[in-house]
From TrEMBL:
It is found in: Cytoplasm. GO terms for molecular function: L-seryl-tRNA(Sec) selenium transferase activity. PANTHER family: L-SERYL-TRNA(SEC) SELENIUM TRANSFERASE (PTHR32328:SF0). Converts seryl-tRNA(Sec) to selenocysteinyl-tRNA(Sec) required for selenoprotein biosynthesis. The modification N6-(pyridoxal phosphate)lysine is found at residue 298. Keywords: Cytoplasm, Protein biosynthesis, Pyridoxal phosphate, Selenium, Transferase. The gene is selA. It comes from Halobacillus naozhouensis. Its EC number is 2.9.1.1. The lineage of its organism: Bacteria, Bacillati, Bacillota, Bacilli, Bacillales. Pfam families: SelA. This is L-seryl-tRNA(Sec) selenium transferase. InterPro entries: PyrdxlP-dep_Trfase, PyrdxlP-dep_Trfase_major, SelA-like, SelA_trans. Pathway: Aminoacyl-tRNA biosynthesis; selenocysteinyl-tRNA(Sec) biosynthesis; selenocysteinyl-tRNA(Sec) from L-seryl-tRNA(Sec) (bacterial route): step 1/1. It comes from the Bacteria. It catalyses: L-seryl-tRNA(Sec) + selenophosphate + H(+) = L-selenocysteinyl-tRNA(Sec) + phosphate.
Amino acid sequence: MKQYLRQLPPIHELQKEERFERILANFAITKGQLTKFLQQEMGDLRQRILNNHIPNGFFNDGIEVVIFQHVEKRVEQWTLDRLTRVINGTGTVLHTNLGRSRLSEKAVRHVADVARNYSNLEYQVEAGKRGSRHDIIEDLLKEVTGAEAAMVVNNNAAAVFLVLSALAKEREVIVSRGQLVEIGGSFRVSSIMEESGAHLVEVGTTNKTHLFDYEKAVSEETAMIMKVHTSNFMTVGFTESVATEDLVALKNDRDVVFYEDLGSGSLFDFTAHGIGDEPAVKEVIGSGVDVISFSGDKLLGGPQAGIIAGKKDIVQKLKKHQLARVLRVDKMTFAALEQTLKSYVSEDSVTDELPTVRDVTRAAEDIRRQAEFFSDELQAQTSSYQVDIQESTSQVGGGTMPGVHLPTYIAAIHHAFLSAHELAAKLRAHTPVIVTRIQDERVCVDFRTIAEKEMKELIEGFSTISQRN
């Protein structure tokens, strides 16, 4: 191996190559960055040679050619956007791995406008003095939730942490054992409660909790009764839980705070469309709960955020807590959330303007027509594919509406030469990235989550792969 190692050129010689200058010009990186990539490639090359893995082209093309080919690939990969657009062909509307909710066009425009300019984030324009970011959209939040006051933090986990820290630190919080949930990323209610300084008091059993369980647990050390909406799983069979109205009556009798973590949080009545049984935020607030929290980027259809709403004195206390600054959101989140909430204020426009609500409530026949158009167009362009339109089901996703299966239609696609896994991999390597699901050795595209404006790119993606194979 030593004879091969001796053939490796020094870095300073490679820097004199015309190819070095060409890469600098093509990718607009600094000489120092390119030198670093060269050093990394040379280190990897030495290791491959020592492991008796001689690179292809080492003898025929010349070692300098091989080195710069590999370096250019490294640079190209480095300069690609880390966060990039994806066409979601899985049918899962709130796909956590793919960014959950898509924002409305109004929200996107408002975010761009606020991002490229100065804004009144903490400035009272009329008074000409410092303001509070908590005031920006509180009126909209109060309107859509029916609460006396509201505020925004960076996600619902942060909202839970703030509520427990501010209202129950070093005191007891009563929670049903059946509601000690774990969500994505190993976030557990019990763990966040421990971090907040509140003391967990478990009542009932996994499948059954009665009102008398709460009644017996309330003591002088009790600060709060907490109800956690089990939005990411279902317990079926021999089960029982206590209604929000009964816990409101108990908290009024015992003078403790009642907090309900709604998780997903819905401002739209999906039940009117026969979809799930998600409690409406306004109804929960109207039942007399002291404070609630829910996500902004799930069923709400907005940006990542945690929304806290409830009694004015409680929300004011939360706003003044030191954690409120730690957990606050930026101007772009406020901009996106503002336009999302305005769609709810104008109720007639919700299904037209908010992609999340539109996609969850889409009619199966509308999806079928879209799938058939895809099939006709693709097979008119290439004979490499066999496309079958099939009935199937979609998921809402994002830990939301467990057990809800939305009727849909999929295109089940077979390629003449590629396996399902090979085709799916090539689609993921395409620009834009196309993410699908595999079922019965077919690549499946669920059109519930494919926007009309994405159809041309989707068809071109499949067609391009066919031409290359």
